[in-house]
Amino acid sequence: MRRTRRGTGRTTLTDVARVAGVAPITASRALNSPDRVSAETLARVRQAVDNTGYVPNLLAGGLASSRSRLGALVVPSIASPIYLDFVQALTTSLNEADYQLLLGESGYHNARESDLLDAIIARRPDGIVLTGTMHSAQGRKRLRSSGIPVVETWGMTSRPLDMLAGVAQQEVGAAAAAHLNTIGRRRTAVIAADDHMASRRARGFTTEVARTRGAEPEAATVPIVRITAPSTLGQGRRALSRLLEQHEVDSVFCTSDTIALGVLIEAQARGLSVPDDLAVIGYGDMNFAADTPPPLTTVRVDGAEIGRQAARFLLDKSQGRRVSRRVVDIGFSLVVRESA
Amino acid sequence: MRRTRRGTGRTTLTDVARVAGVAPITASRALNSPDRVSAETLARVRQAVDNTGYVPNLLAGGLASSRSRLGALVVPSIASPIYLDFVQALTTSLNEADYQLLLGESGYHNARESDLLDAIIARRPDGIVLTGTMHSAQGRKRLRSSGIPVVETWGMTSRPLDMLAGVAQQEVGAAAAAHLNTIGRRRTAVIAADDHMASRRARGFTTEVARTRGAEPEAATVPIVRITAPSTLGQGRRALSRLLEQHEVDSVFCTSDTIALGVLIEAQARGLSVPDDLAVIGYGDMNFAADTPPPLTTVRVDGAEIGRQAARFLLDKSQGRRVSRRVVDIGFSLVVRESA
DNA sequence: TCCGGCGATGGTAGCGCTACCGTTCCAGGC
DNA sequence: GCCTGGAACGGTAGCGCTACCATCGCCGGA
């Protein structure tokens, strides 16, 4: 007797069905839509699954149903603490719906972006979540022609590819500027990372400063110190040093809390009092912000909520539900502590 | 004329083959093992791929070949900066070999661990990387019977499931203890997170202290402050406060740099001089460690190398290469700066 | 009694790809 | 001239699952 040519030898749904004494299709229904089989059949199939140690093969299931129950995430860099809550919330939300997450890293300087997209599309995920928005025309085209739902996150765009959950980054910067203005700071500066999102926050800040100072032209230019990603504490310290060498300032907006922490530490090392000599505002409300000396005033964005919303978008679209609002602004809040 | 019942309408390998004027199997070979077709055929197929915008379906390919080109990673929590370099190196290494990474989060308190494993195994990855070692007997059994190669990482075990790349956590703690002893500190303490790995570092520390103090019984107990994961700067500050309320110490080992940073800040706030009044050692050599006031003495573990080694294991096993050494100790180094 | 409808189950035919086993053709040796 | 062998390519039959369309009872209503 000839054995099958191939096959992994693992137990299949057919085995389970045989043990349970039903047809394969009935076993499939028992597992995937339990309310469409009788209670007795359900019990028998479940028993058979336990006895055989059956684990479904989602490659086969996905191929047959063209639904892979897979979500894909593209991040510029995983090694960036800003996105941790976001990624965590996204995986958790997907897992709760029996979806898994495929992780892809594009790098900040998107050369391999197109290859990465192809590799992801080849897995036929039910949705793709982009951290930031997709810029390259080639990438946008690739995504569109794949027919896979896309969720852009974090930044707001005027013309999103498909669905979007994020925060208007410029407004974040503007809010920081407004606060510094309110507390009477007039000689202000920015320390900004060179990634896309941070640049937009910085631009929002400088624009707002320029707007409120329409009548005071001499102070209208805002010094900017640019640092290369990733943002670290040390980058923040050195950036403040560089800033103070060249300018006299009474306040600074940092595009991340990590940078701000470095600024606080450097200020202390130089005997500057925060906020009296120097007011400091960060971004992110990371888990250390309330415990810095002094506690950090910062802009809080609910990254976890962005992750959950992205998951909701993805699941709704993938499961055929109608998505009414395709663009959601998560919003932000200024958390005023002591540093500004 | 009846249309096919199903199908996504996307271009398939058969379409490509038709355009190129070859059989599907030849097109498959052209894409997967280019050196097994003639140069002319290869060119024609590549041309056809470009013209049609074909993207392979890896669900189908994986099902047919029982090789999914997928790696899976299980982390307790993504929202932990310790593993960032590791995850990044792992994804990068896998991507370079045309593999993708599936991400699963187990949570520190492994209740859903078994469900997560089933969900992962259902995707038939070519290998599973565990952060930490698998403890639950059920989980170990599930993994073993799945037949999927497993790489445990970070911690060393006497009896690994399969392959292992990590660091003997106890020795890390012991090295910290030895250093404090060398610089003459005798009243030492530990601040430890409550996760498994951190506990092992803490145990290594206390064991070493006890060993060197065989002759000084009165000082043989080491105060331990336990904090609940995740480790934050604030946890570090509060832990030091609690410690100083109850004990008089001249040095402290923190199971993470994040905690250590909090300790440095709290010490400064209390007017304690580091290292004169209090020597501090951290763990991780995170990207801020060189820039803290004062620069932090810490134990450095090359997380990226663990990630690369895990990828190497996974790829070797999955591609049928022989793996000679199945356990690799990555080692660590004590980075002596100014805090201890 | 007959019929329509509905709930439960099953048969069949793929999903898009690749393993396995040909077949064809030509170079090279005797 | 014949045979061998290897390179190039192709036909067929699945991989394990589910969509689609039956089929089979059984119940209530006319």
Compact description:
The structure is a homodimer. Helices cover about 45% and strands about 15% of the residues of chain A.
What sort of overall outline of chain A do the alpha carbons produce when their principal axes are compared?
elongated
- Return Rg of chain A in Å: 26 Å
Biggest sheet details of chain A: 6 strands, parallel
- Proportion of strand residues of chain A: 15-25%
Estimate the mean pLDDT confidence of chain A.
91
Describe the structure.
Two copies of one chain form a homodimer. With 340 residues, the first copy, chain A, is an alpha/beta fold. Helix content of chain A is 43%, strand content 17%. Chain A is built from twelve helices and twelve strands. Chain A has a six-stranded parallel β-sheet, sandwiched between helices. A six-stranded mixed β-sheet of chain A has the order 7-6-8-9-10-12, with helices on both faces. In chain A, strand 3 (127-131), helix 7 and strand 4 form a beta-alpha-beta unit. In chain A, helix 1 packs across helix 2, helix 5 packs parallel to helix 12 (303-318) and helix 6 (113-121) packs parallel to helix 7. Chain A is elongated, with a radius of gyration of 26 Å. Chain A starts with 12 loop residues before the first helix and ends in a 5-residue tail after the last strand. The model of chain A has no long low-confidence stretch (mean pLDDT 91). Strand 2 (100-105) of chain A pairs antiparallel with strand 2 (100-105) of chain B, so a sheet runs across the interface.
